[in-house]
Amino acid sequence: MPINPLNFQTPQAYSSFDFSPLANLGQQLRQQQEQNNLANLAARYGYSSLDASAPQSQPDGGGPSGGGPSGGGTNYQNAISRIESGGRYDLQGPVTSSGDRAYGKYQIMGENIPQWTRDALGRSMTPAEFLRNPLAQDRVFNHRFGSYVSKYGPGGAARAWFAGEGGMNNPNARDQLGTSVGSYERQFLKGLSNGY
């Protein structure tokens, strides 16, 4: 005899069943999948994954649309990397008069890398390690640039990124390539408005 769905009644035992542990399990599986995706992305590009003891959350440094590090990048990531490296994680800048140079997609000075990676990732990296790790570059940028945005807003953050917090208020100061603090900020803001 077929069951008429309109007359089917849920047995009393099922109506009081608590499904919340299953929901919690589903959430844990989604989080584990996200972590596996990041590890797989790092492995696919031949980079070591970040230290498991590294903090998992930091200021996102995202653009107006928010968000954190991702394959496509945030508006802030895209605007800065377009100016600095054309989006290349493997780029090394010219050696400066101090003997240092900038590394990676966001052109972070070598002298800053040990401390900035410790702050953002929970462990210090050498410039060579940093250059080989796109995920670390994105996370360090998001951490540091995000803190600048919190303090100074987007334009001020760009000036601080270019000239440091000590030199960000001198719009006419120039780097060895001739770029001024003021023109760097204008390039950044133009990139944001164009959706880079």
Structure description:
The structure is a single chain. The chain has a domain at 75-193: Orthogonal Bundle (Lysozyme), CATH 1.10.530.10. It has helices at 12-15, 20-44, 75-84, 113-121, 127-131, 134-167, 181-193; strands spanning 102-103, 108-109. The chain has seven helices and two strands. Strands 1-2 form a two-stranded antiparallel ribbon. With 196 residues, the chain is mainly alpha-helical. Residues 45-72 have low confidence and may be disordered. It is 51% helix and 2% strand.
In brief:
It is built from seven helices and two strands; from the N terminus they run αααββαααα. By secondary structure, it is mainly α. The chain has a domain at 75-193: Lysozyme (Orthogonal Bundle), CATH 1.10.530.
Strand content range: under 5%
Q: Assign a percent range to the helix content.
A: 40-55%
N to C succession of SSEs: HHHEEHHHH
Task: Quickly count the helices.
Answer: 7
Distance linking N and C termini: 65 Å
The name of the CATH topology of one domain is: Lysozyme
CATH class (first level) name of one domain? Mainly Alpha
CA-atom Rg in angstroms: 23 Å
Major pleated sheet: 2 strands, antiparallel
State the low-pLDDT regions, or none: 45-72
In the CATH hierarchy, what is the architecture of one domain at level 2? Orthogonal Bundle
Which strand order do you get reading across the main beta sheet? 1-2
Give the structural class.
mainly alpha
Gross morphology is globular
Tally of extended strands?
A: 2
Mean pLDDT, to the nearest integer, reads 78
